[in-house]
Amino acid sequence: MEKEFNDTGVCVPSRHYMVNTSDKIKSIIQLIEKGKYFTISRPRQFGKTTTLFLIMKKLFKTDEYLPVRISFEGLTTENYANEKKFLAGFCNLLKRFFRSQKLHELLDYTEKQGNMENFDQLNSFITNLCSISTRHIVLMIDEVDKSSNNQLFLDFLALLRTKFLDSMEGQDTSFHSIIMAGVHDIKTLKAKIRPDDERKYNSPWNIASDFNVDLSFSSHEIETMLNDYSHEKNINPDIRAIAQKLYYYTSGYPWLVSKLCKLIDENIITQRKNKNWLAADVEAGFRMIADKAYSATLFDSLIKNLENNNDLYELVFQIIINGRSLDFSIDDPVINLGHLYGILVNSERGRCQIHNRIFEQRIYAYMMSKVQRTKSGNVNEYGSPEFYNVSGLDIRLVLQRFQTFMKEHYSQKDAKFLEREGRLLFLSYLRPIINGRGFDFKEPNVSDERRMDIVITYENQRYVIELKIWHGPKYHQKGLKQLSAYLDTYQLKEGYLLIYDFNKNKDYKQEQIIFEDKEIFAVWV
């Protein structure tokens, strides 16, 4: 069977091109060897299920450990109706696994137990199951989020906790190690346990050890997958450069890495004879997946999480649109939620940062779409031939027209409104102009300067526009230096600066600036 890049379900080495995660698996095995109980809490499609599968395959090769891998996705609503039905569902999951792995002794024992009525009987069942096994049983439960809103699940956790503590004191026999995987950290799950919808934090899993293994892919790890692919396809691309570009756009988010590779393999290179990958292919893949018309379950979940939490939406809005630099504090419930969903990460400077450039691009396109639906003052110059000339896109004219637009429609708005909405208005103004003709990319920026960098690609030409808030001449010079340095990364000598001045007596002016070896056209709004 020919291998492929996988973007659905568990990745299997014999069927899929995969990153070599042996170092990660080794670190997790070390936790198991120490008898730790822990949770793999990571966002959606972050490789949790594949990681459990690889751990299981590794443990099966040992003489000491017996992995038992189940998923609570296999439980139905009916299984949560009462204690007996929950226990029946749990045992059915065990029997299904024992049967598939031909573990006949454990299967026979489980089938002979009949129908357990309560958790006391489950207690004895686990003790006996672990006693008759010739190897230490490692219980792995995937999709535990499916049960997080139920008191029966809390009782189940409490039982496992008690057995763990008793076994540590030599008073009981239990699973050697337990791994639970899901989006939420089991230690801090909220559970609906009262009819009046009152919620409280549970604590039956405070025995869990910290899980600090990074499941994201490094650039070097991505190279291992590309090496495998290149060997099978008999091609010789610049693997290091491509891996670095893949990491640049994805920050190692596993599903995004695999999806970009799949797009390149099955969509992009099929259009040409030379099947060697190029760094430009990664950029083409990025433009495809970042396009607001491209649908994927992960992006649906991303937007849903923002739509369902106003505080999280506002926080992300301030970071992406208004360039706010916010300290990353995991104790802040809103930041914690953003981190839980894979939207926010802690930058090297200790600031909140959107996890990757694809997420940032998708979110900012979504926020622009909202403002286009809800704001008045739409311009009628969208798509005007005046914006295009023989050399490409006339950014100078775009900025001049936007300045006029703001003066006519928003000059009476207060500073608070403009500070929140001003830059989003420009982005929504810009998008229809280049839609179908070019591509605009918001470059992530986590700094003390509240600025936003927009990179536009149009007919093989690139344009850089920096959006900044006016804080006086001193900061203006600092901003020019930042823009000059940023232009150097694209080997450009010309750039554009859109400055938001929230002073009441501001001057809607334009200025052609020569700074270092750059020509910068600046517009104040």
From TrEMBL:
Signal peptide: none
Domain of life: Bacteria
SUPFAM superfamilies to which the protein is assigned, alphabetical: P-loop containing nucleoside triphosphate hydrolases (SSF52540)
Name used for this protein in its record: P-loop domain-containing protein
Organism expressing this protein natively: Desulfonema limicola
